[in-house]
Amino acid sequence: MTDELLVVRCRLGEREAFAELVRAWHDPVWNYVRRMLGPSRADDVAQEVWVAVVRGLPRLKEPGRFAPWLFTIARRAVADRLREEYARPEIPLEEERASADPIDALVESADLLSGLAGLPVREREVLVLFYLQDLSLEDCAQVCAVPVGTVKSRLSRARRMLREQLTEEGYR
Fold this sequence. Notes:
By secondary structure, the chain is mainly α. It is built from ten helices and no strands. It starts with a helix and ends with a helix. The model is unreliable at 93-109 (pLDDT under 50).
């Protein structure tokens, strides 16, 4: 069933349609949030995204554009969390790692993910949306609220930065 039809059914009050929408999109949203913020914060922020979706679904003008709309909400939730964290005093790295789930820490130690984490937020964001969430350039532009040309330049810069970072670490 298409996202558009599910959105229309949700607006008509069908709970099963919303559950199906969540089943289809929870993992992509959670993965986006995890790649932007890390595994320790992904669950809470992903939950905030779905609360915002429930509240905003009646106002979605184009049900066929659900995916970009959803990732725009996720992007705002990530930005809000980053703003909150920048306002708090910094936690020493050892304390933060000690509180993380060991399985998540193992996954996060993967070379590519650590390379992504080393990129600036804007560049990391377009890489995650374009390559890992399979959004089109146009959808990435809509989510990031920038022109398509800006997305292209950020993608180019992000690929170059990631390549340089991985080369420095001895990959290649």
